[in-house]
Amino acid sequence: MDTYKDSWSACLLYRNKQLTKQLKDYQKASALAGCSSSLIVAMGQLLCLHQKTAYGIVRDEAEWSNLFIVIDLFYGGCLLDQLMSFYLSAQELRLCYLLRARLDNKTIALLFNIAPRSVLKAKQRIKNKLALSAADSLDKYIQQC
Question: Please, are residues 9 and 71 in contact by the beta-carbon 8 Å criterion?
């Protein structure tokens, strides 16, 4: 029993050291970049989306808003301003931003906890709202906005 407690304590100590180091790295990056910690978190979320996507990486509207800002910074321009006149839903805007960040259908499906086929259907509905032809690529259109 004592060895279990000892190994558990060692595991917790190791994880604490990891998190402390990560926090210090975030603080350094925040100081260098001159931006808020929430934007640093959004940058980390974007990195996670590209490396190891999972459902629940982005948890609430504030995090989605910060992720939109980071994607606009990295991929140029304010996509929200360009899509405002098309009256897209919040979920459709999220999908467009993820396409802007060059995420594929499978990754988007994992993030939204839906089937990849549902992503295709959602993209088709957005294409219709944007009045794109069947031959036009929504991904390319969004990335070039």
Answer: no
The sign of the torsion formed by the CA atoms of 71, 86, 107, 21 equals positive
Residues 46-50, mean pLDDT to the nearest whole number: 89
DSSP, residue by residue, 101-114 = TT--HHHHHHHHTS
Cα torsion angle, 63, 54, 106, 52, sign: positive
Domain ranges in the chain are: 1-33
CA 145 – CA 143 distance, rounded (Å): 6
The CA distance from 117 to 75, in Å, is: 26
> pLDDT tens across 75-110, in order?
888 898 899 999 999 999 999 999 999 999 999 999
